[in-house]
From TrEMBL:
Organism: Leisingera caerulea
Protein name according to UniProt: XRE family transcriptional regulator
All copies of domain HTH cro/C1-type, residue ranges: 12-66
Pfam families, per database record: Cupin_2 (PF07883), HTH_3 (PF01381)
Coiled-coil segments on the chain, per record: none
GO MF terms, alphabetically ordered: DNA binding; DNA-binding transcription factor activity
GO cellular component: cytosol
InterPro entries per record: Cro/C1-type_HTH (IPR001387), Cupin_2 (IPR013096), Lambda_DNA-bd_dom_sf (IPR010982), RmlC-like_jellyroll (IPR014710), RmlC_Cupin_sf (IPR011051), TransReg_Diox_bact_type (IPR050807)
Keyword Phosphoprotein: no
Signal peptide: none
SUPFAM superfamilies, sorted: lambda repressor-like DNA-binding domains, RmlC-like cupins
Alphabetic keyword roster: DNA-binding
Length: 182
């Protein structure tokens, strides 16, 4: 079992127990198979970003809590490094750059996305706000009905607790996404 899989397995089990949910109840609420959840808690499988976000939403915790470890005083992640989370819906790869410290709910991601498919995101926990900063390429992002076309240097913030989407309009679109939750 790899270190990220161990971390995710322990965090899912810890948060499921904290929430007082059975394996069946959490799987149903997250919209995944009970066998899939069982495999993830055993440290097996390779969960997609959608699966992890669905579990985090069902547990009412930020996604970064599923990667909880003691953070070092300094962190340097060079471009192209980090543990990627891949989408099942589109060519979308996110790398968690910074997880929230206790009592602060903020996640920072470096995301590279390819054109061709829209990544539709389910609402995150109530009060979540997303911040997008496009570094290169071009994309369309935002809540349903309020999507905007973003160019390099454009910043867009919107409620992440509503249906929203991301779509790369150029190859290798790179953006920074910050998710904040109360």
């Amino acid at each position: 079992m790899s270190a990220p899989h161990q971390m995710i397995a322990a965090a899912i089990q810890r948060e499921r127990n904290r929430a007082g949910k059975s394996l069946s109840a959490l799987a149903a609420q997250a919209g995944i198979a009970k066998s899939t959840l069982s495999q993830l808690e055993a440290g097996n499988g390779n969960p997609s970003v959608e699966t992890l976000w669905a579990l985090a939403a069902a547990l009412d915790v930020p996604l970064s809590l599923l990667f909880e470890t003691q953070a070092p005083a300094t962190t340097l992640i060079r471009g192209g490094e980090g543990e990627p989370l891949e989408s099942e819906q589109s060519d979308f790869t996110a790398v968690l750059l910074s997880r929230c410290p206790p009592n602060v709910r903020r996640d920072v991601y470096r995301v590279v996305m390819q054109p061709g498919q829209v990544r539709r995101a389910q609402p995150h926990p109530r009060g979540t706000v997303e911040h997008m900063l496009v570094c290169s390429g071009q994309m369309r992002a935002g809540p349903d009905g309020q999507e905007e076309i973003l160019q390099p240097g454009d910043y867009y913030t919107y409620p992440g607790d509503r249906l929203h989407s991301y779509e790369a309009l150029h190859a290798d679109t790179l953006f920074i996404m910050v998710m904040e939750a109360p």
